[in-house]
Amino acid sequence: QAKEIGSSVFFLLEANPGPGLGILCAYYVFGKGMSKNSAPGAIIIHFLGGIHEIYFPYVLMNPVLILAVIAGGASGVLTFTLLGAGLVAAASPGSIFAIMLMTPKGGLIPVLAGIVVAAVVSFLVAGFFIKRGKGNDEELEEAKAKMVDLKGKESSVVKITKDIKKIVFACDAGMGSSAMGASKLRSKLNKVGLNITVVNNAINEIPADADLVISHESLTSRAKTNAPTAEHVSITDFLTSPEYDKIVERLSSLNSGNKEVVAEDKSKMVETENTVLRKENIKLNIKSTDKYEAIKMAGKLLVEGGYVEEPYIDAMLQREEIVTTYIGNNLAIPHGIGEAKKYIKKSGVVVLQYPEGVSFGDGNIANLVIGIAGIGDEHLVILSNIATALEDESDVKKLIETNDADLIYKTFVNM
């Protein structure tokens, strides 16, 4: 067909994202708990990313939804056939972007019409059944576990299957990004009153009693090696990860009877007089440069402040090569690798403001570069304050645009 008439409807049979999109939208509108909250992320992965298997657990959780898939698929094929839709070649992956690229000139409307019809029909049928079902979190977890057994690999949604008493955030050095991530999750757990300890450690020092380990996706394999009995969650950044809310919701359902808060909060273990961040180590309105020069400047300030020895700067650059220290919300927190702790004299934090930003790769722009040298717990309260301050985009904008070092100092120290 593609040779004779320039396109073929057969290229649309498997690639059509409409049926899966309808089911995920139905869960978002009519679902409850984790299935509802995880649906938006799954929609993006499915429709824009073309990874259709993301919706499989949602069907396995409620097998009658196979009728929605059939109805949506059949409606889409009928629409494609009636309108003469087709693609010039296979769209892989089956994302809307790949499909549009494979659409022949003048054939976009029939293709989009078939996708929309399939999604609407699937949504209506799925919504009918979802409204009448329980759809609890345990069913979603069981469905994901079933999919792992069937396919032999992990699903993309957070998987927690047992009571959690201790959560460990692990990064290469255990002094920067993991500390901020621990602070963020600890705050969320405290708000719902969960009796769970949250700490941060270097990836080679994960305690044996860790029940759940959270690490950057590039370090998860190492984390699993060092903590094989714990459950593991991978994240892409420690500051703004959507996985935190999923973890809190899942833990709330698992630990619903445990309401006393005793979360270990290292961020409060600090000296009365702050010497970790000094006003003279807050530099404003620095001209944009590359990330390595920005990291070197932060390292030099740490050296000049008496916090670290000179070799620590090279360790900061080495850490950036392992995995980026950009953690989201226009913030990077360069620090040394774990082995570089021997070069730290005392805990210190320096702040560099780049109004025009510094590129940390993959489209990530840091306007605040915060150099860290951590030993003990003295720096954790400042990292906790930084994590809290950067939750609000308007506050982030103020810190990026301010000409007042006192504002940054008071925000990070006295919050």
TrEMBL record:
Oligomer status and interactors: Homodimer.
Q: Superkingdom of the source?
A: Bacteria
Catalysed conversion reaction: D-mannitol(out) + N(pros)-phospho-L-histidyl-[protein] = D-mannitol 1-phosphate(in) + L-histidyl-[protein]
- Membrane topology designation: Multi-pass membrane protein
Q: State the name under which the record lists this protein.
A: Mannitol-specific phosphotransferase enzyme IIA component
Q: Which InterPro entries match?
A: PTrfase/Anion_transptr, PTS_EIIA_type-2_dom, PTS_EIIB-like_sf, PTS_EIIB_2, PTS_EIIB_2/3, PTS_EIIB_mannitol, PTS_EIIC, Sugar_PTS
The places in or outside the cell where this protein is found are: Cell inner membrane
**What broad class describes the main subcellular location of this protein?**
membrane
Q: Which residues form the PTS EIIB type-2 domain?
A: 165-259
The residue ranges of the PTS EIIA type-2 domain are 275-415
UniProt xrefs under CDD domains: PTS_IIA_fru, PTS_IIB_mannitol
Q: Where are the transmembrane segments?
A: 9-30, 42-70, 77-102, 108-130
Tell me which PANTHER family the record gives.
MANNITOL PERMEASE IIC COMPONENT, PTS SYSTEM MANNITOL-SPECIFIC EIICBA COMPONENT
Q: What is the lineage of its organism?
A: Bacteria, Bacillati, Bacillota, Clostridia, Eubacteriales
Q: What GO cellular component term, any one, is given?
A: plasma membrane
Cite the GO molecular-function annotations of the record: kinase activity; protein-N(PI)-phosphohistidine-mannitol phosphotransferase system transmembrane transporter activity; protein-phosphocysteine-sugar phosphotransferase activity
